[in-house]
Design goal:
There is one protein chain. By secondary structure, the protein is mainly alpha-helical. It has one domain (about 5-95). Helix content is about 90%, strand content about 0%. It has helices spanning about 5-70, 80-90, 90-95.
């Protein structure tokens, strides 16, 4: 090989190495940006998930409380009050449950 050909091959090797380094740097930067974006998205969704969990617990608790008062055989003083509230607010309770 001539000296010019050897120098061209060396130049190509250097270019390939630089491209590999730039690619690695780009991948690291991109990965970092994606992680930051995922963190922001998760932080924004956290209150929604917490609110949903709270609503589920509230709905279940109300449902269980009403069932307990209405199904149990003992004379609960709350039985009449619960029946009255359920009759008046049946639409709202149905939406919640």
């Amino acid at each position: 090989m001539t000296r010019k050909e050897l120098q061209s091959i060396d130049n190509l090797k250097e270019i390939v190495l630089k491209i590999k380094e730039q690619n690695k740097l780009f991948m690291n930067n991109t990965s970092g940006l994606i992680e930051k974006m995922n963190k922001k998205v998760n932080e924004k969704h956290e209150p929604i998930v917490l609110e949903k969990n709270f609503n589920n617990v509230l709905t279940t608790s109300i449902s269980e409380a009403i069932k307990t008062v209405l199904v149990d055989n003992y004379s609960s003083p709350l039985k009449g009050i619960i029946k009255n509230i359920v009759e008046k607010k049946s639409g709202v309770i149905a939406e919640m449950v």
